[in-house]
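Figure S7 source data.
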Amino acid sequence: MRRFLPRSFFNVITLVGACLSLLSLTLILFLTALEAFSGHSKPYIGVVTFVILPVLFLMGAGLILGGAYRAHRRQLKGKPFALNVDLSTPRHRATAGVLGVGGGLFLTVSIFLSFQAYEYTDSPSFCGGTCHPVMEPEETAYQFSPHARVACAQCHIGPGAAWFVRSKLSGTYQVYATLFDKFPRPIPTPIENLRPAQETCEQCHWPKHFLSEKLQVHDYFLGNEANTRWSLHLLLKTGGGNIEVGPTSGIHWHMNIGHKVEYVPIDRQRLVIPWVSSTNPEGQTVVYRTTDASITDEQIAAAPKRRMDCIDCHNRPAHIYRPPSLSVNVSMAVGWIDPQLPFVKSVSVRALRDNYTSKQEAQDGIRSTVEDFYRSYYPALATERASQIERTVKEVQRIYSRNFFPEMKVNWKTFPNHIGHLYSPGCFRCHDGKHQTAEGKVLSKDCNVCHTILAQEITGSPQRLALEGIEYRHPVDIGNAWKEMNCFDCHGKQ
Ligand code: HEC
Ligand code: HEC
Ligand code: HEC
Ligand code: HEC
Ligand code: HEC
Ligand code: HEC
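Tokens for the predicted heme C complex:
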């Protein structure tokens, strides 16, 4: 038999190295082809394709050369150095046969396993589960969001080849950061390399799609002994931008399709926006600047400009962390927290608001806050209504576990939701009534511009309602403060 390589290559070490290199090369090619044909990129498999397998490949190459070198040295010294394979002997033939079949099986199993790994790295349970506890907040919130059935990668990576390498690199870094505990707490947003909304959200939500007006009914409970109930009916003017389907008006039309809105945020989280411009389809531009004197022109000129897209309003489509007051109102409205218990609203909110350093501490703290309150101030009721109090404790603990993540320092304050304006600046980052053009035109803060306040009702009084909208009445008398200040100036601190 003619040999293409020097005899020193025919030794056990080199042979093992060759198998290793061949196997990793096959798997690299297989995974790369799989990704190329599947149409969408999966970032974390990159750790396997571009880090682990190449390392194995190089190790194999090292073994090939190392083995050959060792054999060469032995040859010079006159020691036995090479494998003596003689396929004409039955024993060698049998061994070669067994090795061949075994190797083939091993390769098939490896390919199958790498396919499984490939599928698995795309699943939400990998993204959320494997990186537990890093991703615990996002994973938990995601499961209770309208996107619970949309894979993480569909928003965070999206289709196309251009993002392939980029997502590979950041995916690899993230795995490294997790393994070596080098990640920040909380994980900072906005995410610098998040794909533009056009390539993610708009793949599923047609931007011109016309959304009709949407009725929202809210129930609120005050923090007094009677937990006075208020309710509010809001008609949200979502609208859209397709003239063939309906009138182009409302929140979506203005912000997205007809108009190009650009803005300058001066903080990283984009919560302070002193400058905003709107350009209509004819190319006319209107610039609004805040009248807040503490922000200088230099600050505005130095900051980067950004074109507004879906994420600037819908920054929490999948990871929504709710403020205590909102969650407690909802639980009381459905009766899971009994509104008949005196002061139950304020006690529940207080229990959620306390600073806890771990989940366990929070669960214990919530129990003692609620139980101690009723034992100290309503001792008779504490025994009579023990089951309602127990139910309240359980419900408040549940609210906590879905919305607060002390280990990752995540809660509604670290990740404010930009839709609305009650608990976070949201729409009022621009629509605070303080943004004006040079001619003095104010960016509207009128309570009936974005929604019509259809009705308001307070326990014991008749409902006030009107189709064209009623004037808002603030649940507690704070004079004109609710008109002059922004809602979140008071409610964002709760
Ligand atoms: C519907 C789209 C969507 C889905 C599905 C989605 N995310 Fe997100 N995610 C976002 C957006 C939007 C942001 C915030 C972007 C910003 O503000 O820059 C975000 C932010 C994050 C952040 C940064 C921290 C934070 O809360 O802002 C992490 C981590 C994260 N997502 C992980 C995940 C994981 C894990 C999954 C799957 C279990 C997932 N995401 C599914 C859209 C999505
Ligand atoms: C893979 C498809 C897909 C992608 C990508 C996607 N969504 Fe969705 N989105 C859905 C589905 C499905 C629903 C649920 C529809 C329903 O409830 O009828 C939904 C619902 C919504 C809703 C309505 C929520 C509610 O309260 O009912 C909003 C707002 C939304 N998506 C915004 C976004 C934004 C912003 C992005 C980009 C970060 C995005 N979506 C990316 C499929 C997607
Ligand atoms: C100016 C801020 C703003 C921008 C920009 C924006 N939206 Fe919205 N969008 C809203 C508001 C406000 C609502 C109604 C709020 C609600 O339903 O809670 C809404 C409602 C929606 C809904 C439907 C919710 C429902 O079931 O009625 C979808 C889907 C949606 N937006 C997707 C998008 C997509 C996709 C983009 C980007 C092309 C986008 N939005 C850009 C503010 C915005
Ligand atoms: C980055 C600044 C910015 C943010 C944040 C913002 N808007 Fe606007 N919005 C504008 C600008 C600028 C205009 C005015 C467009 C014009 O003058 O043509 C506008 C106009 C509107 C209009 C039309 C007003 C009218 O007079 O007809 C509605 C409705 C609206 N926005 C709703 C919202 C809602 C709801 C939110 C929060 C979810 C929001 N906007 C957040 C900048 C913003
Ligand atoms: C720039 C648009 C805009 C303006 C101006 C505006 N709102 Fe709103 N408001 C919204 C949006 C969007 C939501 C819905 C948030 C959501 O879907 O949870 C909202 C929600 C609310 C809610 C319910 C909040 C909750 O989560 O329980 C109240 C109350 C409210 N608005 C009152 C007012 C009052 C009072 C004014 C006038 C001072 C006003 N709004 C002006 C956009 C606006
Ligand atoms: C000067 C501070 C201040 C401002 C500004 C303010 N509020 Fe309030 N608000 C309060 C106080 C105090 C309460 C009573 C809280 C309680 O009893 O638990 C309250 C209660 C409420 C409640 C019912 C309690 C709840 O949260 O469940 C709603 C709803 C509300 N405010 C909406 C608004 C809206 C909308 C705006 C902006 C248009 C606004 N507030 C502006 C101080 C303020």
